[in-house]
Design brief:
single chain, Rossmann fold, 2 domains, 10 helices, 5 strands, 59% helix, binds adenosine-5'-diphosphate
Length: 207
């Protein structure tokens, strides 16, 4: 049980997963809303019966998982479908992430939320917000090589997210991910020490 939740966010390709893994290696618990969304929509996932009831059998693949391409096409051609999808998934993700934060067995929890800046309900849960930041050109480059997307596709995704300035405005701490992984590790180590200190202060005050 941990009373200290650090919200971690950043734009696509900024390095959220990489930085989250470094925090876990240092000893933090991780609750990742993207991973929860994947669990919910994987084979036998708790959201699948609701998605099949709402959208029909074409949104599942042979394994029973969400067929992401089919869903993407549906959302593209039907604007209410996106809202329907979010109305099914978001409350489940909120509930499960909240339960996992409460059950976490570590001095503090990293709550990774890609759209944290866009969401008041997640921001309110966090004692602190750490933003993973890098120049937009680097984001584009990383996502093009990681996902095999075109530059236009990556910039379209980025345009639908909060801007770099908006994210930095809500940040209590910033991880600058524009150098190598050793540099990243050093920044995470410093923040880990800080979060251990802050979580111990909170635990002491709550005694
Ligand atoms: P996000 O979770 O924010 O989308 P990732 O952590 O998946 O971003 O990083 C995007 C890609 O860039 C991944 O392939 C990752 O391995 C790579 N990457 C991230 N940070 C660095 C870095 N400092 N040096 C080299 N590659 C990096």
């Amino acid at each position: 049980m941990s009373d200290f939740i650090v919200g971690l966010t950043g734009g696509i390709g900024s390095g959220k997963s990489t930085v989250s893994d470094l925090f876990v290696a240092a000893g933090a618990a991780l609750v990742d809303t993207d991973a929860i969304a994947h669990e919910l929509t994987g084979p036998g996932g708790a959201a699948m019966p609701l998605l099949l009831a709402a959208f029909g059998p074409s949104v599942a693949d042979a394994s029973g998982a969400l067929d992401r391409n089919a869903m993407r096409q549906l959302i593209f051609s039907d604007t209410t479908a996106r809202k329907q999808l979010e109305d099914i998934l978001h409350p489940l993700i909120r509930q499960i992430s909240s339960e996992r934060c409460a059950a976490a067995n570590a001095p503090y929890v990293i709550l990774a939320v890609p759209l944290l800046v866009e969401s008041n309900s997640y921001r309110e849960r966090c004692q602190r917000i750490v933003v993973v930041d890098c120049p937009e050109s680097l984001q584009v480059h990383r996502v093009m090589s990681r996902n095999g997307l075109s530059e236009a596709e990556v910039t379209a995704i980025m345009a639908a997210q909060a801007t770099r300035v908006e994210r930095l405005r809500v940040a209590d701490d910033v991880v600058h991910n524009d150098a190598d992984l050793i540099n990243l590790q050093q920044q995470v180590s410093r923040l880990h020490a800080k979060y251990l200190r802050l979580s111990a202060e909170i635990a002491k005050a709550n005694c």
